[in-house]
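Blinded run. Sample ID left blank on purpose so nobody reads anything into the name before looking at the predicted structure. Input follows.
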Amino acid sequence: MKEGISTIVHHFHLELTGFQFEMPQINKYSYYCVFWWKNIPLGDGVFESKKSYDGLAVKTKVWEAIQPSLRRYISTSSLLEELRLLFFLEKKLLFSTLLEEVFGELTVLKEEEKLDVSVVICTRNRSSALKDCLYHIFSQQYLPREVIVVDNAPSDDSTERVVLGFKQAGLKYVREQRAGLDVARNTGAKAARGSIVLYTDDDVKVHPLWVYQTWREFEKGDLDALTGLIIASSLETESQQIFERFWSFNRGYKDIKFDKSFLNVKGRVPRVWEIGAGANMAFKKELLERVNFFDERLDVGAAGCSGDSEIWYRILLNGGKIVYSPRVVVFHEHRREISALHKQLYNYMRGHVAAALIQNSYHKEVGYKKYLYFDLPRYYLSLIKLGFPKYTSRYKTLSSEIKGVISGVKFFNKCRNVPAINANS
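Blinded prediction complete.
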């Protein structure tokens, strides 16, 4: 996508639209398209503004977007080739019949009532966004056992009023006076009664099957924690486009399994931050208790953030298993203003560095110190050279990121001996 040109996020459901991919104002806008088969996201692609796409070019681009994930679901190359031919020949009925066989039970929903899932939303003074988030959660086809809103160090009663206004059974309001995202996450986990604790953020809209697909992944067994697909809900502004292009939460459309071997890849440090994002993650409650919850040093306003990636590191280090599932879907509203993006990336890098130093203290052989004191500075030096002298696009936020890196090192040195969990929590 070209930054500065408004991009429209468009969702195509192949079982409904077939092979009709119409974007009437492509001369004026770019389109970020996500392709689905029923409740399964298959891939995405960008159609740039002022480019000419004939029918074959469009179909080729769509096929290139969905082929990698189809390969994950399809057992043989001959079957994939058959699907490709049906797609390009526009044999919709045969294509649909074959996909129904491919996906099988993945598109069939079980009959369940409320699921044994506790949804936790940590929020602070963002009542309007929270209201929208709660609306989408209570519009789920399958409801969770409970929804817990943790009101983190609020300056007013707006969050409480939003929660009281819903009047749904199972909606619980919890006030946490100690500031910090991971403090709030821990408060929500301890209040949860469900066997699965499912987290999202107040600036997120969830897919109608979000709770169900989370529950279904845990029902399969052989996992302790879960992350899911996060799709941008809007790409209208330059700030949103920069974030999606260079900092995206989207981890792709294939299932990925992580275990302790992920921490021992030769030649690089374990990039636990690539496992997923805190806006769409779930844990067995007993696992959170076993690993002693989130590290409360890693908070916005403290270290910065990265409490999610730090806990994934500890889970893997202790032999746990994490699954990334693209069928567990939410839609995230990226920061619309560049000033807000600067602040966000400062906090990201501050928390990222502090988390890496904490992880290094658990397992020095992994090599996070080399990554932080050699690889990361070299990376930023190359960006400074590449961006000179205009510092547009990716290079616009470099100053905030570098300040965050330095601040993260200072924070760790100051707080390395502070307990990960407040004794009063």
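Unblinding after everyone has recorded impressions. Residues 339-415 form one domain.
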